[in-house]
DNA sequence: CGGATATCAGGCGTACTGAGATTG
DNA sequence: CCAATCTCAGTAAGCCTGATATCC
């Protein structure tokens, strides 16, 4: 988990000060932290990382793109995009071809093997989501997604 | 940013794949990531860190404690507790006294200056919370806290 | 002795910055 | 010459492990 605001240490068996226990940002960071560990672990077992999934999903959904494009769509730092694309390339999950029109650019394309790998990772994430939301009813899950989406939309408006 | 499950890169102006857009863990990690940045930045401007707040709050709410106690209550790694307590001590926000009964132990106590500092940090966090929840009504905020608490309680039950 | 505490030093993976080479 | 792209090297802060010294 990237930077970890008020969610350090995964307060599992810990007693939490009341100040934090009802702080929405703390609650979300805690949950994000726990679920992140599970996701990272599960992906690691499949020899993948979150970025691999993120980049493969972006390539499949929006089509081929250059590293700079991927930086803009995913928000991942360009240096890290390049490194990850290198890894994915060595695994034959994507291929890099020089752009015909602008030779500064490299076009990254997902391969059939990449699509197959993406479906596998999809399945892993789907399972983890149901575990995460286990204590909520269907209605509550929808409500949660609705509230979170509302907050995120507003956050994106600034900055 | 701390470990960052599917929430890397703070997708601010980015187009997000549909796979992720409705993934609760991704939504939460995104929000946690954005709010984390704001919190870290605001605390940095006040010459503080999240751990400082966490430890000061724990000391005020549960009373004096040794580093090992603090590790257990906060979940923060002992080495980092020691380092942070050192910083807080140099700022006279806490004081360290050897425990009378067990001389292996050090008793960490919050000072009046520490309490004052804590109130300042409280105020900073309170303000950031209202910014974060701005798009939600009062009822929605309560509902959100309720749902998050439910999930977190269930997470804590495992492991 | 074993077990617990406090402290310090360093490793490791992640996010980011900066320098470079190439092309437009 | 300046701007954009890609790449890699290196920094910074966070989390964690391990070694050491002291004390029960």
Structure notes:
The structure is a homodimer of 159-residue chains. With 159 residues, the first copy, chain A, is mostly helical. Chain A has 7 helices and 2 strands, in the order H-H-H-H-H-E-E-H-H. The first copy, chain A, has helices at residues 18-21, 24-45, 50-62, 67-74, 78-90, 112-132, 138-157; strands at 94-98, 106-110. A two-stranded antiparallel ribbon of chain A has the order 1-2. In chain A, helix 2 (24-45) packs across helix 6 (112-132) and helix 3 crosses helix 6. At the A-B interface, helix 1, helix 2, helix 3, helix 4 and helix 6 of A face helix 1, helix 2, helix 3, helix 4 and helix 6 of B. Chain B binds a DNA duplex (24 and 24 nucleotides) through residues 1-4, 8-9, 66-68, 76-83, 86, 102-106.
């Amino acid at each position: 988990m990237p930077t970890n605001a008020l969610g350090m240490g995964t307060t599992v068996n810990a007693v939490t000060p009341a100040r934090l226990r009802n702080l929405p940002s703390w609650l979300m960071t805690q949950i994000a932290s726990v679920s992140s560990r599970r996701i990272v672990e599960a992906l690691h077992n499949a020899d993948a990382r979150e970025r691999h999934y993120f980049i493969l999903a972006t390539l499949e959904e929006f089509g081929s793109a250059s590293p700079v494009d991927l930086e803009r769509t995913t928000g991942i730092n360009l240096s890290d995009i390049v490194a990850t694309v290198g890894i994915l390339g060595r695994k034959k999950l994507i291929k890099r071809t020089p752009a015909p029109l602008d030779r500064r650019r490299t076009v990254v394309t997902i391969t059939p093997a990449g699509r197959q790998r993406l479906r596998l990772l999809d399945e892993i994430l789907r399972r983890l989501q149901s575990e995460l939301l286990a204590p909520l009813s269907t209605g509550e899950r929808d409500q949660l997604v609705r509230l979170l989406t509302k907050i995120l939309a507003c956050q994106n408006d600034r900055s």
